[in-house]
Amino acid sequence: MRYRLDDIATFLQVVDSGSISAAARRLNLSKSVVSKRVSDLEAALGGDLLQRSTRRVLPTDRGLAFYERGRSILRQLDEAAEEVAEGDGDLRGTLRVAAPMSFGTLYLGPVLFDFARRHSRLALTLDLDDRMIDLAAQGYDLAIRITRPRDSALIARRLAASRRVVCASPGYAAAAGLPRSLAELPQHEAIGAAEVSSTWLWQFEPFAAGGPPRSVAMRNRITVNNGEAARDAAIAGLGLTVLPTFIVADALRDGRLQQVALDAEPVADVIHALYPQTRHLPRRVRALIDHLAESCGEAAPWEQGLPFATSERRVS
Asked: Which family does it belong to (predicted)?
């Protein structure tokens, strides 16, 4: 039985990506090379590993079993190589990072690219997608999530609070006025940033510490699945929206949007770096997490210079 490590790694990437084309893009290879590597592996193992269709590929039963064992073994091999290479002081190898689309493009990308510039022997893959992914199964070293993590199989390091603000354009404020309390919110047009129905709950801090958040049902005039699109709809004067400050910071600074002062603040999220539990965390992953934590600092850097006071409350 003769097979190559490149063929195995390519097969794992095809399963992770869901198609030959997507795997080829991630590996920077042609589709024909990816297909041949998988076919060579199937020939070496004596059976089909994938069910192929025109739009998607799925692992067969034996392909899924090989994928689960192969992913674990390949990770262990990477860890062994990392342990041997750690002594020379240079960071090397490949880092695969998953992050939300808006945070990745507006803030995270430049921070990661600065890290890559400092460590020329590192290869970096950054996947921007708002879907929740299985880090260990899909071979990611690290994920950035803006939420309150609940997955006990992952280790989380807090990077920063992600404060949210209700905002509107000066044009909308002049035409419709602005609410001053949560009770007045439903009287206004709303812009929702989620793949949901036209009704969406906005959540605000509870009356008392430890209590449930207060929810306000808003009727969305505009519903989009991207925060930057919701920001742009608000700038166009189409209604109120509630968004993380990293999305609206520039628009608040230059006056295209203004904060809506209410009798309660929106519930904040937390930006975490998450990584799988492993016996040996590669030094390159540890170094990247430290770099991200340093870049965030004590206060979120994207909030510097905003025309309103930042909250003193710490979110944990």
From this structure: Belongs to the LysR transcriptional regulatory family.
CA 197/CA 45 separation, integer angstroms: 48
The beta-strand segments (E) located in 41-182 are: 50-52, 57-59, 93-99, 122-128, 142-147, 154-162, 164-168
Indicate the angle between helix axes 20-27 and 31-45, nearest 10 degrees: 110
Span 44-84, pLDDT tens digits: 998 999 988 767 788 999 999 999 888 878 877 876 776 66
The predicted model scores a pTM of 0.73
In this structure, are 260 and 279 located in the same domain?
Answer: no
Whether 309 is covered by a domain: the verdict is: no
Handedness of CA 140, 141, 145, 148 (dihedral sign): positive
Q: Which structural domain range is residue 127 located in?
A: 92-159+270-303
Same domain? 96 vs 58: no
SS3 category, 278:
coil
